[in-house]
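Handout, section 4.2: multi-component inputs.
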Amino acid sequence: MSNVLLRVDQLSVHFPVKSPLPFQKRQEVKAVSDVSLEIMSGETFGIVGESGCGKSTLANAMIGLVKPTGGKVYFENQDLYSLSTNQFKEVRRDMQMIFQDPFSSLNPRFTVYQIISEPMMIRGLNTQEEMIYRTIELLEMVGLSKEDLYRYPSDFSGGQRQRIGIARAISLNPKFLVCDEPVSALDVSVHAQILNLLMELQTKLKMTYVFISHNLAVVKSICDHLVVMYLGHVMESGETTAIFKNPLHPYTNALLSAVLDIDYEHQAQRTILQGDIPSPINPPSGCRFYQRCPKAMKGCITCKPQLIEVEPHHFVACHAIHGFPEHCEVVDAKESIVEVKSPYDQDHGKRS
Amino acid sequence: MNPMLKVRGLKVIFPNARGILKAVEGIDLDIEKGQCVALVGESGCGKSVTSLAIMKLLNSPPAMMQVDELVLDQLDLNPLSDTQMQEVRGKQISMIFQDAMTALNPVMTVGRQIDEVFIRHNQLSKKEARKATIHALGLVGVPEPAKRANQFPHQLSGGMRQRILIAMAFACMPKLIIADEPTTALDVTIQAQVLDVLGDMQRKHQVSLLLITHDLSVVANMADTIYVMYSGKIVEKATKAELFKQPFHPYTIGLIGSIPSLHDERHHFVQIPDCVPHPMFKPTGCYFHPRCGHATELCKSTMPKLLDFPNGRQVRCHYPQNQGMGGASHE
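Output:
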């Protein structure tokens, strides 16, 4: 259990943006900046955050769908981005992905058989007969039947389509599976079916999951480790139990209180975050969260907090928790609470 | 007390070449003044069609709608023509749609789109309308409303767009607002903001709200009375406290159980097997029996009647769970 399957080392992904006028300084969307993490073999690793915080980009960079601008990704101790094309293809077989939207991730003109057998076809090791046999086996594994083999995606409901997507992802027996919000496009009642299926498959096939979600209630019940991201930075990370027992970062707390619970009588007083996530083109220089943070201090604007271990297996990046480091100019934390500039003043036109 | 909205026996069918698609099969709804009523169900159970039918927004053909009674605050909507309905929509009933990007016109500033409501229904001049618009935007917590009014939908974030829609729906202070999955497309933090605004506005102005959603956690925080819908029929009606404490219908029990909660420690989710039957091929008897753990021969052959319980509670099941008292059969 304790060996590291995937290691991400100071990974950054920046996308260039077309400058609005010629000869202007080229701007960049800083989707992911300076993220390091380790994923153990056999665990479920959660990435949580609002949309636009870079969680999908991080996952894409982990499996080589997006080329990072800085940092390294090691899968089974091989640097993913220094491999040759052929070696990369070999490694990539062990890393598969389940996509968010089961309506756009399946080719509407392919039959279920074509969709699921496509990875095997590309690998080119199986005969036609073997592929049909294997596809039926996979269909039964995900709770569909062999009558569905020659039907089209349009014949299925959202939950069933997601099952087809899962069958495709596990067709090559991957070791590592990225689930990018696998249930958020589905009905609440189908969530449970898909999540149970994913957990069942994990124990059966001994896979390692990266589970991306913005629903903390789901993450709590299935993830072993967790990172909370905001605007491309890791705000809090560690063991799920430690984080949920003692959430320290103001952003984690805000996310937790935003989760609507059906247990409405026990719902604690909600602290609702004001404003939206700012544009990642010109992210705040200090702590990226200071504009919306209820505990923001003057020093947060200029000084970037480091990810520091506060208790075993629990890391937090927040000045309010472990104070300002010495090289920061503003130290007086008590008197320096400033009026926080509204994030609405930012130009939202840059992102759609 | 007369309900704000009274619907009796609402049926909507879509006849096509292969047969008749029964989307809604006889629904009774009551919404009191200032109350928030939720209509809950999975996708494909007919809840959106119900909301469109109440607004009389369904095109015929293909849809065919039949209703015994459709009364909004003593105004019978049933015989009204399309032109007459245009006076009602926006002024007396209005709607908040799910996807704000498609509900707003992308080539008009949001201010002009809200102005239209005032100009059409309150006969204001353009200048007065703009003043009213800015006021309405301020009410829903849009910062710098005068500046926002001159922006286009694509310049605003998802939460802002949804606020614009709420402002537009509340513009003429209608008697009833229908919110069709108002927060499904939003993030959790933004969802909490938008629901807060919606709830505040509803309580402050004593507007009746029909909330349509598949998310019971939203319902638990907003609604007073809840209708659970399955495959075109109401299967359970109860107040919020009763429904969450003591759900009677196996479907409701499944829905509540399938939601992960921050407070419990289980690592396996309760699931309802399969999915909603296709409305063209509904099973015989109780529509829920193929997915129900308590189904018997009786369930396979006969559709249960809506049983009445004290406190206006209703359940459509042969074997209601979680209860000791017997129910009186409803006609």
